């Protein structure tokens, strides 16, 4: 435990598993009191049970009343919220099967992605920002995605919603920065969450890894490390940023993996 977040209260959405649960654990390890919110109340409770002093709460980001009730309950319980991690997103198998290319996109999937990934983050921020201002400041951290900065053949709604989240982040940072409320966005690449590790074929993992500049794929703890930094005063001069955390996938030319394979076959890096 580093203690750099001692006395702070953190609220993490989508904390029932994966990146959200890892972030909650890391924030708690750094000294924060943590609230884990998730639409799956049972998953949130299970994740919270592994963190001493953590609190689990149910949250439906598509329901404005649910968001308001959660924010009020957290403030009543702890008296403050210093860190808000807008991590929750809709990306289950049923959603993915409907979130296709534009011509074949199910409009209901589009609406759901926008409702959870953008509107939900906006509602959560709207509820928490006034409390942050009243207490002298705070840090908001959003989980965006590489799909929000690069085109893809599918997942149209998901990618567009994450692009909107990146812009919402800039808006919040601009509007409330002088009141000491910081807002930053993580542009997250493929991460081996337990679900991804189990459901992604090894062949697909190999293809993804070939486009990474790192020797390994990312883990939830890698994202949690950045969350903890952005939550702390060590990052006090960083706001409005969209920080890639993707093993370098967005840092290179699209042909990188193909040329790397070609050079390996040639035994030389010179054409």
The total number of structural domains is 1
CATH superfamily: NAD(P)-binding Rossmann-like Domain
- Gyration radius over CA: 19 Å
Q: Write the CATH architecture name.
A: 3-Layer(aba) Sandwich
Separate helix tally: 10
Let me know the largest β-sheet: 7 strands, parallel
Supply the helix-strand structural class. Answer: alpha/beta
Per DSSP, what share of the residues sits in E-state strands of 2 or more residues?
A: 5-15%
Descriptive overview:
This protein has a single domain (9-199, 215-251), classed as 3-Layer(aba) Sandwich (Rossmann fold), CATH 3.40.50. Helix content is 48%, strand content 14%. It has ten helices and seven strands. A seven-stranded parallel sheet has the order 3-2-1-4-5-6-7, with helices on both faces. Helix 6 links the parallel strand 5 and strand 6. It is globular. The chain starts with 8 loop residues before the first strand and ends in a 5-residue tail after the last helix.
């Amino acid at each position: 435990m580093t203690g750099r977040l001692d006395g702070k209260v953190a609220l993490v959405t989508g904390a029932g598993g994966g990146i959200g649960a890892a972030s909650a654990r890391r924030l708690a390890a750094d000294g924060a009191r943590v609230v884990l919110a998730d639409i799956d109340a049972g998953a949130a409770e299970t994740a919270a049970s592994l963190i001493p002093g953590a609190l689990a709460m149910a949250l439906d980001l598509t329901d404005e009343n649910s968001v308001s009730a959660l924010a009020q309950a957290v403030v009543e319980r702890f008296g403050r919220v210093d860190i808000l991690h807008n991590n929750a997103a809709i990306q289950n198998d049923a959603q993915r099967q409907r979130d296709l290319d534009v011509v074949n996109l199910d409009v209901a999937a589009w609406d759901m992605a926008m409702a959870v990934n953008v509107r939900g983050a906006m509602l959560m921020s709207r509820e928490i920002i006034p409390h942050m201002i009243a207490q002298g400041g705070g840090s908001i951290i959003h989980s965006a995605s590489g799909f929000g900065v690069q085109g893809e053949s599918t997942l149209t709604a998901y990618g567009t919603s994450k692009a909107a989240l990146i812009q919402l982040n800039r808006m919040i940072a601009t509007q409330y920065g002088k009141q000491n409320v910081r807002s930053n966005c993580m542009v997250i690449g493929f991460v081996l969450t337990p679900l991804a590790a189990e459901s992604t074929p090894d062949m697909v993992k190999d293809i993804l890894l070939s486009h990474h500049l790192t020797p390994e794929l990312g883990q939830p703890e890698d994202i949690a490390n950045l969350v903890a930094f952005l939550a702390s005063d060590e990052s006090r001069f960083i706001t409005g940023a969209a920080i890639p955390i993707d093993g370098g996938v967005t840092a290179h030319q699209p042909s990188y993996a193909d040329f790397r394979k070609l050079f390996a076959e040639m035994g030389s890096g010179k054409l």
